[in-house]
Amino acid sequence: MKKSLLLDAVCACIICFPTMSSHAALFDRGGGLVYDNVLDITWLQDANYAITSGADADGFMNWYEADNWAANLSYYDSVRGVTYDDWRLPVTDGTFNSFGLFAPTNCQIATEQVCRGSELGYMYYYNLVGNQGDDLTGVQTPLINIENVYWFGTGNPNDNSAAYGFIYGAGGGGLYQQYAKLTVFNNAWAVRDGDVVPVPPALWLFGSGLLGMAGMARRRKS
Question: Cα separation of 216 and 213, whole Å?
Answer without folding.
Answer: 5
